[in-house]
Amino acid sequence: MLVEGTLRWQVTEGCPWDLLVALAVRDLAGLEDVGDPALPRLVPALEPVPAAAAAPAMPSSPAPARAADAAERTRRDTVAAQWLAWFRAAADRERLPRDGLLQPPHFAAFDRAVELQDVILATYDEASAWARERVHEFERSDAGRHALRVADVVDTVQQREHELHRRSGSFRLELDVLPFATSGAWIIGPHTIAVSSALRDDSAAFRQWFRPLAAALV
Predict the structure, then answer these.
(1) Exposed site from 50, 58, 80, 119, fewest CB < 10 Å?
(2) Shortest CA distance to 47 belongs to which of 58, 32, 33, 57?
(3) CA 83, chain centre distance (Å)
(4) How far is CA 197 from the centre of its chain?
(5) Collapsing DSSP states into helix, strand and coil, what is residue 1?
(6) DSSP for 168-185, written as a single string
(7) 15, 3, 1, 11: which is closest to 179 by C-alpha?
(8) 117-167 confidence digits (pLDDT tens)
(9) Rounded distance, CA 138 to CA 156, Å?
């Protein structure tokens, strides 16, 4: 966790394990098009798990086949809606329970979303192992670039303060640095923006992106 700021404003950066797991479950279940806009796929890529993503075998006759296809679309739509609700809850730090929502082996927080619960049960081991590796990668990257990352944020805010000839007002911002295949940034919750690792690791590109945001916040 990296925190920059003063008593008036604060920018917090991290790579939240719970969001990583949720996104990994999404990719393992073949739900990468969920959301508006949908967040990019992850890197390293995760291949869909048949138990979580595959449709049941289709009957040979046309009518049962159409019925089975419609049932599978309904199941997928249900899982997608339940996943999106989970991700939004995980991204809302102010409301998220201290222990998070992922409590194996039964994942009781999803007892009312049984379709998603089944998907989590089928993918959790792979998703959680993948997420732990990404957290370790973020920590190693942060250890080598800590001073530069702080400067990226502080210098940009101070430059805006200088332009306005006043101190910044009060604001709080959380940047979740996540390993997306596409470089960019997306609003995912109150005071929370998901930033791709590629964008955050490129100091010049990050400052260019952060400058208009700082102008609006300061």
Answers:
(1) 50
(2) 32
(3) 12
(4) 11
(5) coil
(6) ---EEEEEEEE-BSS--E
(7) 15
(8) 999 999 999 999 999 999 999 999 888 888 999 999 999 999 999 999 999
(9) 22
* Whether the Cβ atoms of residue 39 and residue 184 lie closer than 8 Å to each other: no
Average pLDDT over residues 171-192: 95
For residues 171 and 124, what is the distance between their CA atoms, to the nearest angstrom? 36
Above 90 in pLDDT, residue 196? yes
pTM recorded for the entire structure: 0.89
Confidence at residue 56, expressed as pLDDT on a 0 to 100 scale = 47
The token duo for 2 is 């990296």
Q: In whole angstroms, what is the distance from residue 132 CA to residue 185 CA?
A: 22
Helix (H, G, I), strand (E, B) or coil at 144: helix
Cβ atoms of residues 83 and 26 within 8 Å: yes
pLDDT by residue (tens digit) across 49-105?
A: 876 654 444 455 666 666 656 777 888 899 999 999 999 999 987 777 777 789 999
The pair phi, psi for residue 127, each rounded to 5°, is -65, -45
**Per-residue pLDDT, 36:** 81
Q: How far is CA 169 from CA 84, 166, 176, in A?
A: 33, 9, 22
Instruction: Please check whether residue 70 is in contact with residue 116, taking contact to mean a CB–CB distance below 8 angstroms.
Output: no
Which residues have C-beta within 8 Å of that of residue 9, sequence separation ≥ 6?
A: 157, 168, 169, 170, 171, 172, 217, 218
Rounded CA-CA distance 163/107 in Å is: 50
